[in-house]
Each structure stands twice: as structure tokens, then as C-alpha cells.
Amino acid sequence: MQSQLHDGSDAAENGVMLVLGIETSCDETGVALYDERRGLLAHDLYSQVALHEGYGGVVPELASRDHVRKLVPLVEGLLAAADLSPADLGGVAYTAGPGLVGALLVGVAFGRSFAWGLGIPAIGVHHMEGHLLAPMLEDQRPEFPFIALLVSGGHSMLVKVEGVGRYRILGDTLDDAAGEAFDKTAKLLGLGYPGGPALARLAEHGDPVRFRLPRPMTDRPGLDFSFSGLKTAVVTTWSASDGTEQDRADLARAFEEAVADTLVIKCRRALRETDLKAVVVAGGVGANQRLRSRLRDLVDELGAQVYFPRPDFCTDNGAMIAYAGCLRLLAGQHEPLVIQARARWTLESLSPV
Fold first, then answer.
1. Residue 150 needs a FRET pair 20 to 30 A away by CA distance; which of 74, 136, 156, 306 works?
2. Can you tell me whether residue 312 is helix, strand or coil?
């Protein structure tokens, strides 16, 4: 693949930008190249699952050190695979938060320094903005405004999206996020780490009506989420069972049904309260097939539409960061010459594009 850009200054003058995206917010090192004119050119991801599996979860210090080892070779390999060089880049985008601060700092320090060395602009991207814009990388793209359901290991929220950087949080996580509840339930059932995909596979063999678990906070008004009570109900039900393989499958199915129902009920409320007709689903839990099926049924009923990123872009990835960063760089936004990572960062504080 031959580059159609010559250097960063030419890219800016021509209104076309080739952006390197870097994602290191947790335990996956993601890189991507996004061209404002040609779209996504290449992406690569290194997962640390094997590194953290023995600990039953992400160890922050180990995650940071592994990003240090993997990031530069991934960037070099990505550019080589796309037949491009650093001189072809017009900008660098990196996840600046929220996330594990040590892991974030690896991507921030490399990305900002790399851009400075090349004399091109850099932009720190909000991790959740990357997720909610990920469906824009698909052929079927939503139009603003829409409702975004962001469901991952650290977040469960409903956001009204009126444009890039124009966000209003309608509902947020009061305690445990949906993805965290998946992982902890899977750990209780002895399914290992990461637990979400394993639990979904086991649930396919479960009886959908044997166990009935609560649908948290659906019996009261509002759009906030809470999954701690659901986890407690799982523990109680599991303790009272015989612990057979069928018990495990039936409980996995009951848990998955409860989470899917809860998320769909809240989406229904959000669509009705805002009178919008489109919902975007992103984040790791957005890859769950039962949730996707239930949401398709919901939008068919309401005469609305639902948009999902491809499964590879539901989890953390560099493509969503490259895309979001490209939009902001093209709007003239860029970072000063500082190294800044934010473990916490609200979506509503972002500037509009």
C-alpha cells in the first residue's frame, strides 16, 4: 500500500490527515492508522490475557510494563504492514483517560513524544468517546443525535449524543458495571479469566426459566445502573445449588438474561424519554449476542435503529482512538507539549467539534 501523503504539513494544508491511534488504557495494546479520506488503513492489537490469567484479573503494574515492551514494535510493524513511514503521519492520537494511570502513561508519553519528534500535532482522546464513536468505522453509520449504551468492565452508562463532544449522561453506574459483574460471576462459577465470553458460551446450554434473578433498578424511575445486588443474588443461588455442571449452565443463563433484560429496559426508557430513534451499543459487553438480539427486537418494536461496532472494536482497540483523534485534529484541536493522563475523566467535560 503506497502512501498518498507526503508529510504532516502537507496533510494539514490539503485537509487530509493520516492519524496513528494508540490505546493503552488497561490490558490491551492497540494501534491503528486512520486516513481521513480513505478510512481505516490498518490496525493491530496485543492482548495481555495470558499474562493476567493466573491472577484472575488485571495487575496494573504488569499491564504497564507489558505496554512498554509491546507498543514500539506494534507501531513499527503497523507502519511496515501498511507500507508507510513515520514521515507519512499527519497526527498522533492516544488514549489519555480514563483508565489505569500507569498503563495510560505509557501510551501518552510515547504518543506525545513521537508526535513532537515528527513535528506533527497530537491529541489525547477520551477512552469512552472512542467507544461511542466506534460504530462510525462501519459501513452502516448512525447519524446524530442518538443514544449510546456504553457497557464495559468499568462502565455502564446511557449517553445522549448530539454530536462529537456534545454529550449528556442520562444514566451511570452506581456501583459495579455490567462487564465487571460478568467477570465476577464467571469467576464464582469457576470459568476463569476473562469471564464474560466463557459465561456467554456456557449460558447457551442453560435453562432460561429454572432460575429467576433480579433486574436491578428496573422497578423504579431513572436510567442509572447497579449490578451489585445481582451479583449477590448469584452467590446466594449458587450456594443453595448442588454445584453440578447443569446448575452452572442454568445460573449462567439466568445471569445473562437478567443483564440483557436490564440493559434493554433502560434503553427503552432512554429512547422514549428523548424521543430519539437510534441507539449505539459499544464496549466489551456490546459483543454479547443475547444482548444484541434483544436490542434488535426492541428497535423493531419501537421503529428505531440499533448500531454495533464489529466485535473486534467492542473491546479496547486503537482504531476507535485513531478515528476520534482524527476528528478532533481536523477541527484544529491538539495537545500542548505536556504528558498528562487522567485516571478519571467525565465525558461531559469534553469540548465539542
1. 74
2. helix
Are 184 and 275 members of one domain? yes
Q: Which domain holds residue 330?
A: 8-133+314-349
- For residue 16, the model assigns a pLDDT of 60
CB under 8 Å to 53, separation ≥6 — which residues?
192, 193
| Phi–psi pair at 352, nearest 5 degrees | -75, 160
120 within a domain of the structure (yes/no): yes
Spatial contact of 265 and 218, defined as CB atoms under 8 Å apart: yes
Task: Using alpha carbons, list the distances in angstroms from residue 190 to 4, 68, 200.
Answer: 51, 32, 13
pLDDT tens, residue by residue, 302-333: 999 999 999 999 999 999 999 999 999 999 99
pLDDT digits (tens, 9 = 90+) for 163-187: 999 999 999 999 988 988 999 999 9
Rounded to 10°, the helix 178-188/245-274 angle is 170
Number of domains the chain is built from: 2
CB-based burial label for 71 (10 Å; 0-12, 13-18, 19+): buried
pTM: 0.92
Of 293, 308, 323, the residue that ends a domain is 308
In degrees, to the nearest 5, what angle opens at C-alpha 230 toward C-alphas 225 and 233? 160
